[in-house]
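[job 0412] stage=complex_fold ligand=iron/sulfur cluster status=START
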Amino acid sequence: MILDLETIKQLGERNQSVNFRFRSFLKGGNSTQIDRVVHELCDFYYTNIDCTKCGNCCTVLKPQIHKKDLESLSLATTKTIDDIKKEYILIDEDGDMSFNKLPCPFLKNLKCSVYDCRPNDCRSYPHIHKKDFIGRLFGVIDSYSICPIVFNVFEDLKLRLHFR
Ligand code: SF4
Ligand code: SF4
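[job 0412] stage=complex_fold status=DONE, emitting structure tokens
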């Protein structure tokens, strides 16, 4: 298991073309069977990688924020929803909301300071435990160089499927 973030970033660059070749290989596979293997690997890596000791996604990615998330953040910070929007939220031309800076303003010493009330997109990241893994492979390859869970699941999947 590789956990070092700098190593993972470098391997992300080095393995880019192999990863896209693996993507094509997976696209020709059986989605249900691949999901079964991925979910087995997820069970292992979600249990054995501690997100509270990593926080890398919070330094490089902006989660999508929805109205419900504003309510949770308001609860966690005891600030009003209007104040949360003013202080932390960016709204784009389509009306979509995200945090206004990176790393996330709620990340303190590599830990989420609103963990129990964090946005749904944060809870769900890196999304590989969901159905239809082969339908989200661009996102998986993007996250490969960021998230140790994705990196290790993807590498183990290559081995399990005898990909060369
Ligand atoms: S709210 Fe918490 S989990 Fe979400 S990006 Fe910010 S620090 Fe990370
Ligand atoms: S989801 Fe991935 S990148 Fe984010 S904290 Fe957990 S292991 Fe790190």
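The chain is about 55% helix and 5% strand.
[job 0412] exit 0
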